[in-house]
Amino acid sequence: MTAQRKFSLVHVDVFTATPLEGNQLAVITDARGLSDAEMQSLAREMNLSETTFVFPRDAAVEAERGVQVRIFTVDEELPFAGHPTLGTAYVLRGNSDREIVALDLKVGRIPVRFSERDGRLFGEMTQADPTFGHQHEPEAVARAAGLSLSDIDPSVPIETVSTGNGFAIVPLRNLRVLRRLNLNWRTAEEYLRRTDAKFFYFVCRETENQEARMQARMIFYNGEDPATGSAAGPCAAWMVRYGIAQPEEQVLIEQGIEMRRPSRMWVRAGRRDDSVVNVRVGGNCAEVFRGEVFL
Fold first, then answer.
1. Which domains does the chain have, with CATH numbers?
2. 62 is annotated as an active-site residue
3. What DSSP assignment string belongs to 208-255?
4. Which of 17, 85, 97, 127 could hold 279 in an S-S bridge, CB 3.0 to 4.6 Å?
């Protein structure tokens, strides 16, 4: 008879201080003994944007390289994702006073720095320096996204930017266009497969909250994402490159409004000569529940 295995799980909402808002994340806190196929199946079972799996190692190795973490969507393993990085670091920190929790991801070592902000714990990850790729033809993007050409803001380019995952940053003309966005993923994917972008990230400078610099939406093969930290970082770099935000200016991107899971991502990036560098994405987390998985 095969022995039953048990794995501890923590469920957190990320990029929010309020439970049942933000982007949900399941963290398996010790995934040693799980196969790749089992991790993929567990991610499908959770049916969230992402599930993370922590592989504890020797303390000296973790001090040098970070805590090994793997990230799965319902369909694939990702080299990097934003809200899983912040949420997993938050779980690993626990009730300690650690200022920095570093994760060892497929893209390398990603540090998350914690501080107190407005009386709550605030985490800020430093992402890999951005790469700027293809500038997309607005007409082609409009066709792929089910938009008219007049829906797209012509003052800045649609451009692929990556800090680990490639996103085509698509500026929309106003909030009305963002709200009525109705992306057909199959049509979008047909276009994206021919480019250097994995997903579209739709942004708008008109926002419901005057505090925010951008309001955003990201729709992919598992539906709509309430918060996409791996897109917010590239968006921060894109904003600095095109003067929407100043170097080192921390600005707010809100996402998830239309799906009633509001998320708040504080972003900033620097400049060195002609390059955009030091991309950071931060926010709060809220623990919702703990449990155990039996296999």
1. 6-127+284-294 (3.10.310.10), 131-281 (3.10.310.10)
2. no
3. SSTT-SEEEEEEETTEEES--HHHHHHHHHHHHHTTSS-TT--EEEEE
4. 127
Q: Is 245 exposed, middle or buried (0-12, 13-18, 19+ CB in 10 A)?
A: buried
**91, 26 Cβ separation under 8 angstroms:** no
Helix 138-145 to helix 185-192 angle, to the nearest 10 degrees?
150
- Please compute Rg for the chain using Cα positions: 19
Structure letter (DSSP) for residue 260: T
Q: Which two tokens stand for residue 247?
A: 């170097």
Judged against a pLDDT cut of 90, whether residue 2 lies above it is answered with: no
pLDDT digits (tens, 9 = 90+) for 33-58: 999 999 999 999 999 999 999 999 99
Q: Tell me which of 21, 50, 159, 254 is the catalytic residue.
A: 50
Are 181 and 202 in contact by the 8 Å Cβ rule? The answer is yes
pTM of full prediction above 0.85: yes
